[in-house]
Amino acid sequence: MRKKIIAGNWKMYKTNEEARQLVSALKSNIQVIKKTRVIICPPATALSEVALLLTGTPIALGAQNIHWEKEGAFTGEISAGMIKSVGAAYVILGHSERRQYFGETDEKVRQKILAAQGQGLTPIVCIGETLEQREKGITREIVATQIDQGLSGLTAAQVSRLIFAYEPVWAIGTGKNATPAQAQEVHEFIRGRLTSLYDQATAQAITIQYGGSVKPANALELLKQADIDGALVGGACLQADSFLEIIKAAESCS
Ligand code: PGA
Questions:
Q1: Could you give the CA distance from residue 59 to residue 8 in angstroms, rounded to a whole number?
Q2: Measured between alpha carbons, how far is 190 from 195 in angstroms, rounded to an integer?
Q3: What mean pLDDT comes out for the span 162-179?
Q4: Tens of pLDDT along 179-219?
Q5: Catalytic residue among 97, 129, 167, 187
Q6: Which of ligand 1's atoms lies nearest the C-alpha of 172?
Q7: Most buried residue, 117, 129, 200, 212, by CB count within 10 Å?
Q8: Atom 1 in ligand 1: which residue has the minimum CA distance?
Q9: What is the distance, to the nearest Å, from the Cα of residue 170 to the centroid of all Cα atoms in its chain?
């Protein structure tokens, strides 16, 4: 059975002082975490400090983005090796906000996957359709293209070291989550696509998280679905209480 993975994407929130407060509130309830893998992804400025605060806890650390090159004259950018060196083990790639506001393409996602894995980071690869695409009935085509192009040239061994996050863009930050049935349908499609590109054993072993307005009130029903292996949480991870409630929901169905 696939282990549930709950990741918190802090986005561009939390100064270091606020980060310390949130981590300390999570740590004082750490006993909630038993079987679930929990990852928090603070902004790059807080990574070093949060890494130290998480030492000895079961909470892992992730970044929200990397550059695809190892190093170079790329003002303002951060490499996979730099992220690794501050103690992070994961990195979110291809988030819809990066695709929408920073022109991130499937080809860039592919290059970033290689850069991350080259440094031993585990990518959390985000895919998902916009409202317009869903209304046109092309959700499957969009998700299939993101998978095919984002993973182009990757071997089954490389793909087996990825986490996917299906995040319908219309559900992100809107308070309007996909229903468990809507999410399950796309998760099953994604797993099927991975089966046809690779093989059944690879596809069955891969974690596919759901993201988009996950909150304590809807987490359990989403996480109970056969192909939903965890959640990528935005807004609800910024407060310890709501993030811990989502972790509890994962614990109760794993
Ligand atoms: P949300 O964000 O939970 O605030 O909708 C999810 C995400 O962007 O990963």
A1: 11
A2: 9
A3: 95
A4: 999 999 999 999 999 999 999 999 999 999 999 999 999 99
A5: 167
A6: 5
A7: 212
A8: 234
A9: 17
Question: How many of the other CB atoms lie within 10 Å of CB of 118?
Answer: 12
Q: Is 234 in the pocket of ligand 1 (CB under 6 A)?
A: yes
Answer whether 3's CB lies under 8 Å from 36's CB. Answer: yes
What is the radius of gyration, based on Cα positions, of the chain?
Answer: 17
Cα(211) to centroid(ligand 1), Å: 6
* Ligand 1 atom, smallest distance to 236 CA: 3
Active site residue 167: yes
Tokens of 193: 């696509």
Q: What's the token pair of residue 207?
A: 């974690």
Confirm or reject: Cβ of 9 under 6 Å from ligand 1: yes
Phi and psi torsions of 14, nearest 5°: 90, 110
**Ligand 1 close to Cβ of residue 214 (< 6 A):** yes
Pull the structure tokens for residue 60. Answer: 């892992």
Tokens of 230: 């965890």
3-state helix, strand, coil in the chain (%, to 5): 50, 15, 35
* 228-248 pLDDT, tens digit each: 999 999 999 999 999 999 999
Residue 254, pLDDT score: 77
Our answer to whether residue 95 is catalytic in this structure is: yes
Instruction: Tell whether pTM > 0.90.
Output: yes
Distance from C-alpha of 209 to C-alpha of 122, rounded to nearest angstrom: 14
